[in-house]
Design goal:
The chain is mostly helical and 166 residues long. Helix content is 56%, strand content 10%. The strands form two sheets. A two-stranded antiparallel sheet has the order 1-2. A two-stranded parallel sheet has the order 3-4. The chain is elongated and about 65 Å long. The N terminus is likely disordered.
């Protein structure tokens, strides 16, 4: 890793000490634009952003402790409709556009449809075998509903949910 800066400064004992900081980590992932604005992609984007924020704050990089600076960095990584949404709100001087946590919260509200997720979970929990429906068809239908209800879950968890469903 290359060093961003090496600065000598006076130490309490009078001897030199060095402030060594790593370079700023960049937000290389984007959300929106030609890419899919799915809930799954937004979750990946948010996790990526939070990791970059944590690394930069731990490295004590200049301005990363300021929510408005982080908000500006975050807005650069937005494309298409999400960028337009935050940009329009910013042009109307909405305070939340100057805080990275609030931007993330608003993006979650806008791009993760909680109602449809809740409905899919309810359908998966309430599924029952139809009269004269073969067991294999019933299990296939349950598995499909569980996958729709929990799109982010790994296959082994999906299978466990199917087994536990009835």
């Amino acid at each position: 890793m290359e060093l961003e800066s090496v600065q000598a400064w006076g130490h309490a004992s009078g001897g030199p000490a060095f402030d060594v900081r790593a370079p700023e980590e960049k937000i290389v992932m984007t959300f929106g634009g030609e890419q899919n604005c799915s809930a799954s992609h937004l979750r990946q984007f948010i996790e990526h952003y939070k990791l970059i924020r944590m690394v930069n704050m731990r490295n004590l990089l200049t301005n990363w402790d300021d929510p408005s600076y982080r908000a500006a960095k975050l807005r650069i990584a937005l494309k298409g409709a999400p960028a337009e949404f935050v940009g329009e709100e910013s042009s109307m001087l909405r305070d939340w556009t100057e805080n990275d946590n609030e931007i993330l919260r608003r993006l979650k509200e806008r791009y993760i449809d909680t109602e449809s997720i809740e409905l899919r979970i309810m359908e998966a929990e309430e599924v029952s075998q139809e009269k004269n429906e073969p067991l294999t068809e019933y299990l296939s239908r349950v598995q499909k509903l569980v996958r729709l209800a929990y799109p982010e879950e790994p296959e082994n968890i999906i299978n466990k949910r199917v087994r536990d469903s009835k």
